[in-house]
Amino acid sequence: MSSLNLDPKNTGKQYWKSLDELGEAPEFKNFLEREFPEGASEMGNGVSRRKFLQVMGAGMALAGVSGCKMVRRPEQNILPYNKMPESLIPGVPQFYATAMTVGGEAVGLLVESHEGRPTKVEGNPKHPSSLGATGKYHQASVLGLYDPDRSQFPVKGGQSSDWSVFWSEADALFATYKQNGGQGLRFLSGFIGSPSLADVKAHVLKTYPKAVWTTFESVNRDAQAQGIAAVTGAALDPHYKFEAAKRVLSIDADFTEAESDHLKYGKAFVSTRNPDLGPEKMSRLYVVESQFSPTGGTADHRLRVKPSQVVNVLILVAKELAGQGLGLGEWTAEIGALTADAATATAGVSAAYIKELAKDILENKGASVVVVGKYQPALAHAIGHVLNVALGSVGVTVEYKPSALKALNGESAGSYESIAELAAAMGSGQVETLVILDANPAFGTPSDLDFAAKLAKVKHVINLGPEANETSALSEWHLPLSHFMEEWGDGLGYDGTASIAQPLIQPLYATQGVAELLAGLSGFEHRKSHDIVKEYWRKQASGMDFEHKWRECLHDGVIARSAYAPAHPGAVQGGIAKLAAAHAAKAPKAGGLEIIFRAHPNLYDGRYANNAWLQELPDPITKLTWDNAVFVSPSLADKIGVSSHLFNKNKTGTSMGEYRHRPMVRVTVGGKSMEAVAWIVPGLSDETILLHFGYGRRATGKVGTGTGFDAYAIMNSASPFLSGDVKVESTGGLYEVACTQDHWSLEGRPIVREAGLEGYEENKEEAFSEEKWNEHPVDPATGKERSLWTEASEAKGGDRGTYDFSQGMQWGMVIDLNSCTGCNTCLLACTAENNIPVVGKEQVLRGREMHWIRLDRYFTGSIDNPDLVFQPMTCQQCENAPCEEVCPVAATVHSHEGLNDMAYNRCVGTRYCSNNCPYKVRRFNFFNYTNQWKNSPLSMQKNPDVTVRFRGVMEKCTYCVQRINRARIQFKNKGQETIPDGAVTPACAQACPTDAIVFGNINDASSRVAKLKSHPRNYGVLKDLNTKPRTTYLGRVRNPNKAIEKIQA
Amino acid sequence: MILHRDDDPTRRPTLVETGDFHEVTDIITIPAETKPTATWVILLLMSLSLLSVMVGMIGYLFWEGTGVWGVNVPVGWGWAIVNFVWWIGIGHAGTLISAILFLFRQRWRTAINRFSEAMTIFAVMCAGIFPGIHVGRIWVIYFVFPIPNSMGVWPNFRSPLLWDVFAVSTYFTVSVLFWYMGLIPDLATFRDRATTKVRGFILSIFALGWRGSARHWQNYERAYLILAAISTPLVLSVHSIVSFDFAVSKVPGWHTTIFPPYFVAGAVFSGFALVETLLLIARQVFGLHKVVRMHHLDNMNKFMLLTGSLVGYAYGMELFIAWYSGNMYERFAFYNRALGEYWWSYWIMVSCNVIAPQLFWFKKIRFNIPIMFIITILINIGMWFERFVIVITLHADFLPSSWGYYRPTWVDIWTYIGTFGLFGTFFLLFLKYLPQLAIAEVKGVMPEANPHFGDDHHAPAGANAKGH
Fold this sequence. Notes:
By secondary structure, chain A is of the alpha/beta class. The interface between A and B is large, with 65 and 56 residues.
């Protein structure tokens, strides 16, 4: 299947082995010593065919023998297909629909495959949770497939073994369980999102009736399920319809990035953020949270409160709404009985603020929605639901559907309760065999459970997982797990939409899927993932032409109309009171320091720690890479005496120069402590510590081991996400952290332009105009920007190297700052598409990250309670490109379609272009970073349409010129010279969940990009330098509540 | 030599304090004809070891890649370019002394011109290393030369880096020619005194058959004058063009029109400082007190006072223009230089370049050898920091999101130190094997060179009247 030769021994030297005989022959040695081959001078006397071939062959051999190591030519073997696969054109990628499940929720994907190698993941537009977009984990999954540290064969007690050995032992072991019904047999898995796997699981539990199955995910939405069940009496999930919402109150819900279905939510929410909708239709977002989330950054009003007070603010809002006349129905008394005032008063939330907020929501009754985040207690979810019911939002801005997660995993106690029960059972010796399926409890469980130690008491631990990790080290058997692109599967989306997940490639190693292992252990009727999945769905699809339907589903990636229908939520009284009592028992006392634990935005619960793309992906808010940190607010940093090593002099960012080592702090929660580096985050509530879990892996692959700090060490299973019993102190130690953006402030520069909706409405033309912000002088005679010479754009192709930009296709891009949520997906998509190397922490510390896109993050306003703006920054493809003027060898030049091209082969690497780039978007290969792919499966991920860059050359965003050219070929084949609008989408734009990036031909007046370029919000960054950037931005318009602004002022 | 007919030795300080021509010849030739001293051998060994460090560092750089240095994005140029500009600047004094002072008939230059010309050449060699090795792909560095080829590679003549290539190579070529031209009569003197056949043969090749005839002298002086005229604009052009590397770019703090004159003044300033540093050492080691007199040192100190003040003015004017322009990026760049994360480098620069040379207003200090030695060292440090301050301005330009920080690595540091090995090796070889001072020229400014030397009984004005 693959024409790529991965055998490290198979080098060029071996290639020439076919001439061994010749090489050893004395004539040949003689030949090497002579300046001219013997035959060469004799040819004049009549060339015999034999002589000619001899000379040619020897000449080739000479080239091989004298081939010096310094000559760096890629060694490639080009092999023809013996049997050509159907519909495959070599060089033209194919796309297959599949699905990826994280935390039990499947998202449909289309995977790009080059000659059998999956290289790039795109979203499946037909899948309701994707709608063509992808998230970080989807983009990074393709790297996970080729991770060289993946487990490749079964390991028993640390020694490499074989599946046949495993099966002979397992069969013997499980034969006894068949007799005793599974006494002492336990299973542990994450949330199951696959119906066919759930079917196999049911069979396992039928076969071993006494066996117990524990489901645990450290990131879960148990509280949501519990809260909504308490007031509706059913296992329902809320499905928000942001496209219909005019007022959104988010209670710590990062719904554009971290909540279930966030890709869909982001797109829907952003559709209401267009200021041209006018004040009647443009939505307004209120966010109540402690830490800065990307969603909080897009908010019109962000209320920063202590973690324990978030729910109290919701209570205050609920009571205020009731006070303003909103009928809370069945729950009037229960809500009325809640108390929150005293505690919240200390958090500095004014009553007037709550009053105006409630008023605004009430005025938009029926078009408002309350969204509660998954880390909030069940009480908050219950109140949120009650408010949505009372506001008439149900059916308009929120729907309730049966929970797919519950349908597949069954009713159970919460994740943390379940794992605590398992740990207790292990501790008391009740567990004889534990089968751990794709989970890592020895690392990813709160330390109070002491899971790793208790694992030692279990006689047989069978661990199926993708890599050797903390758990596998304590297991009797570690079995290698197939990647989702290597096996057949299926999955239910958040709304119940079913997808069939096709494999893209044969398993690279001797791996098995979860269902395959379980099928073997329980004697299921099918053993292969293909049969398990297909036969499951055959059963579901009785009475129709299954094969035809199956093929259709495979092609589409989704099973049509399989989403759950909305359900009418019931109303249960008494739920809130019960939850309030439970909450009161757990909630931290008012006053004093609090700590919150959150999943790391890149590593999730730790499972992606060995994914180098995700390690090097900057944290969206702090821009830290390769580490997590103890996040503190500026004022808390002062208080614990660590600010001097963090702030720069003017407190406009973290210090870049004076201190490269950052202070370590010791955090103690409930008697357990850990040390980690401290980092300041503006906008984090005072008296709050934010710590991400997922880092601090003790055993994973080469990439992830030893990075960051393990937050699980101080987490507590009773209250995993919030604790008030916390102390923090400086240890005096120091540690280096790799941050890609130290500066917070915009320094008053018109780089990110913002306006209020009102000001924008008043004068759309003026709000973002160059005159208002910054202007390049205009010549009154011509009305054009002044210039010393005839510019490339006006040269009409006269001079060498200039082109007439009014002709042909001229590419341009517009990025809508109102839509960008700073999620980083574009950055990963670009990395995957353009073969961008990972450079490692040391190089990031030196300022040498290679990402072609930066997600610039700026804080505006006060340092304690700032606003947040994001700006994707990549090559602006300037028409007057400063980089081109200064390159001594003309390695960066313009194309006739307005692209600023890099000729890698011509670049000598003076780095002058980078110095002269006002946007600093050029990236230099300081070392031969791509060496990491040599003789590694990672090379299989590389996009064959994009040059792999060697050391010493500059590189940068190309607008995905390979995609432009692919489209050009496609349309030229059809006889069309022009590529229609929408036929070319760069990787960043394609992955963007909120469609913030629009690309196209600016010469085509009907294209989307041309229309946006003439929009009043359109502006170019640093246009005053007369760079004439082809990438421009749509200025940001917030929609603040005037009454609240007055209070804040 | 073109002599000033009205040059009255009695009204000027004596430039050479010796008895006769022969003693001058001895002073300069004997070191080259005797066995090397232990000091010289030790110094040469030290220089050679530093040179080998430099070669090692460059080899390591070529093997591993530019990443062994501290450069990054946004600071794409680091110590390499700082060192380049610094060494090139040092070279400037040589040309100034040889060419401009020659044209202005500043005859006191004879004591120091050979010295400073040699220094120029070796400094330009040190400088020339850096632009070559700082590129990412050294093996295709020939792309920057306009070599006709079948690859379609042709340089971009709009790039200041390309101007640099021409400016520096022209400068080096002319400097070498000029130096060699001046050496010819002295090499002939060496040749004539040679005691071995081999020495005589080699020197006779390089002396180009010099016999000291009047015709030789006439051609020689004409050629010397022409080369001086060619070199003079180079003094202004080379550093102006080097400054274009910065001034032509868009980077705030680089994009300023003051750079060419400011760079030239700074170059002369640092060049004089290094000439004086080396001269003071050589004067001590080789006992050149009679030829290199306090008067010369005083003149050089005055030059440093002048150029140091020019540089100080430029610093002040930069700050003023940054404020006066109203350009927020420009204002920040200068605010950041003085008070940002690299404030220390700015204040080292100001203290060494602006404050230190002001001491030369005092005659006592101009005549105090230890103090002037310290000041010249300070000026060299200050001028290095000036280039550092300029290059490092990159660390915070337009978009605050891209701001970064630059730190040199040990490779950066040792490569720089290693260039002193290169410089020292060549300079020591020069001191040992070539005439350290221009013998013929020095003789030309001695009282004996005056046609009326010894005619004490005649009125001094009678020279022309007597029709010699």
